[in-house]
């Protein structure tokens, strides 16, 4: 009888442990998502290698992020240029995008209690116009960039042929060149993940806030949910094969870490992100 009671107690203890919900332990790290602009894609077909999206359009958001860590403050991506803080949206000459930015960096940072001078680091997922908008304002921060990306956009030829890209980052003089993944603060909580293909040195970002799941920001590896589901590669990517390889690497890492993935151009994920990081 005593043996039976003991077995019941042991089973009860281990059974409770199995059903316990994983408790979150918030770390002294904060992350904020800010609105770097609105992008209406009028010609969605550019986001596939074929004619899948011909005749379709889609609304994108253009998020950028502030990560506050005890060892420094990082800005991840930089939204649309401030020249696009307009009363009416602007359609660029090709007609592909209709774009507008809601407010200046200074005002947006003030809304969360930050100033431009607070930033120790800036990292861009890649140097396309919708990710470099206010980058030059952070000239006192250290720019974390893949070495191949840096060389590609700052060589003498690029300064002429792709002057818009070069001019959007030319004030960033404090540079740390990376070759692959990089643990920014040295404790595994904020890590750049090298995911080339969209551009030669494209990056994603891993952030562990101590919540039930860590966060994984896609950069432009994916632009919207359907592209992730069907592994579709935009027509303007630097290397389609490399993009698909990075998708495999990204998904394996997300599974390994049980990460909560957020697509940076998704209006749905922009809202979902804020709900997740502000949970009690």
Structure report:
With 280 residues, the protein is of the alpha/beta class. Helix content is 29%, strand content 23%. The chain has a single domain, classed as Metallo-beta-lactamase, Chain A (4-Layer Sandwich). It has eight helices and 13 strands. The strands form two sheets. It has an eight-stranded mixed β-sheet. A five-stranded mixed β-sheet has the order 9-10-11-12-13, sandwiched between helices. Strand 2 (58-69) and strand 3 (72-76) form a beta hairpin. The longest helix is centred in the N-terminal third of the chain and has 18 residues, at 2-19.
Q: Could you say which overall geometry the principal axes of the C-alpha atoms support?
A: globular
Class inferred from helices and paired strands = alpha/beta
- Give the neighbour order of strands across the main sheet: 4-5-1-2-3-6-7-8
- Compute the CA-based radius of gyration: 21 Å
